[in-house]
Structure formats: structure tokens, C-alpha cells
Amino acid sequence: MVPSLKYGLHPLLPARLGFRRLLEWTDPDLAAVLETTDAFTLVPARSRVTLARAAQEVLDREVPGDFVEFGVHRGGTAAVLAFALRTEPDRTLHLFDRWVRS
After folding, report:
1. How far apart are CA 18 and CA 26, in angstroms?
2. Which of 3, 45, 47, 65 is the most buried (most CB within 10 A)?
């Protein structure tokens, strides 16, 4: 049984449950994106959540323009940004990385 989310505000609950478990209860879609992107990034889960929330804040404030990521590497944070932009068909996610041939 999942307890009510009102207990998520208790200061001891996040420490006892763990970051991922609490995120599964409060934002299951974002938790699924984190799990999917774990193998494709060097960025810690908490930083990816911060990135997703920052992107959502930009969208909520209706800041015009597209999103850009420089240094895509394996695409984990790009997937987090794509998740944030999933309901924004008029915005484009531009991804840039540098490849060097030997």
C-alpha cells in the first residue's frame, strides 16, 4: 500500500524512503525517464531532475525559443529535455556534440 503523498512533506520521509522511491510516488513519469536514462549519462539522477524541473519552469513561464544542449555525449540529459518538451510541438531540441575521427 502506498501512503498518502501528504506525508512526503515530513522531513524524515525522504531520507527513509530514498530519493528514487519518493520520486516514483510524486512524479512517476519522471522517475521512469530517470530509470531509462541511467545507462546513457554520467549526470547524477538528482541533477537530471533539476534539469527537467528547470526546463518545465521555462515552459511554464512561456519563455520563447528552442532548447539547445551542447555536449550530448550518450544522450541521457537530451532524453530528459525531450521528455520536458513532449507536449511542445512548436519547440525544437537542438543537440550538438563533437566527434573526432582518429
Report:
1. 12
2. 45
| 21-36 residues labelled b (16+ CB within 10 A) or e (exposed) | ebbbbeeeebbebbee
**Which domain, by its residues, includes 59?**
5-96
Q: Which three cell numbers stand for residue 38?
A: 541511467
41 within 8 A of 76, measured Cβ to Cβ: yes
Cβ burial of 89 (10 Å; 0-12, 13-18, 19+) is: exposed
In the chain, the number of structural domains is: 1
> Is position 101 within any domain?
no
Which pLDDT belongs to residue 21? Answer: 86
Per-residue pLDDT, averaged over 79-99, amounts to 94
Stretch 90-98: mean pLDDT, rounded? 94
Predicted local confidence at residue 79, as pLDDT:
97
